[in-house]
Design a protein that fits this description.
single chain, 401 residues, mainly alpha, 2 strands, two-stranded antiparallel sheet
Amino acid sequence: MDRLTALIAGLVLLALVLQDAFEVMLLPRRVKRRWRLVRVYFRATWAIWARLARAIGSTSRRERFLSVYGPMAMMFLFAIWAGTLILSFGCIEWSAQAFHAGRAISDLGEQIYMSGVTFFTLGYGDVVPHTALGRVIVVFEAGTGFGLMAVVIGYLPVLYQLFSRREAHVIQLDGRAGSPPTAVEILKRHSESGGLEDLDELLRTWEIWGADLLESHLSYPMLAYYRSQHDDQSWLGALAAIMDVCALILIGVADVKPLQARMTFAMARHVVVEMARSLGVSVSKTPSVDRMGAGGMDAMLEAFTAANLTWNGGADAEAVLAAVRATYEPMLEALSEYLLISLPGWIAPDDQVDHWERGPRGIIARRLIGGLADGSISEEASQRDRRAQSWIGRIRRPGGR
């Protein structure tokens, strides 16, 4: 390699990495350029990781495997940046060093070693620059290395803070919508507890959550690869449940004003559109899997009747709902297939147990809290009802389950 080739290669690599690091960690808006180092890196590594994950039969093991990808990919990205910068500065320093009798004082490998020592500000002093230009380059590299490490140290807390803000709302859906969350369960639980008027506040919260997620995940798209705490919870599944609720309210749920549902649905659809575009996911016109399933509409109306929830959808409600679903479910399915995140159905299975209901005395807690919420358990009722007495007696006894 001659001096000119080493200089050009070093400058090109330096410019590419510094631009990429600036756009990833410091630029507070989405970069629309199609070709980026970080985009190529994540798409290539995720394709390999996802293929390996699909070969794992156990769902829990597969989720554990997928949960490692996000943090590990970030670590390797930082390592690639650092390694490329060391290589680029090594090439530049080798081309700028003094030559004697047409030959460099030290070879390229030794200059790359000096570059690494300089980048991490170790300063051993066993290899030093011999020209004024070389000394300037060394000082610039030391500042670049120190600055990159400082930015990375400050970047990671921001990234995990955004992740925590996203997940806090997802976890809150456990009691309101079940795990995984479903639209029918949200409406049932609010109707049974006389809290339909609180749905506006809930949807308003999720409208703000959607705006926050859109801003953070467009600026830091790697957050999409970070998995939730529980295998049956995810930001994408929560988003699907909220959009389903909004669709049902707009079509025929009585006693709930449609304005907030409309605003939240618009924000949520904006999220899925932009996330599919940001991740480069191709979307088909129709989903390949019907999340409601055969007879789902009838089962949903039966659940509404059991929960004393008034439905005013009319005779064309199923057709209207199908039309609304076609405007967002294909994008949800495309993101689900790409990220290997399962989407919830519309109706929770009968044997579904929320996370808060698990553990010792979980069944008793569910029955007692449910009965206290709907007023079916009172002191008088508990004296007449032997089953209620058994719950209370068991929960009072030490070691009771």
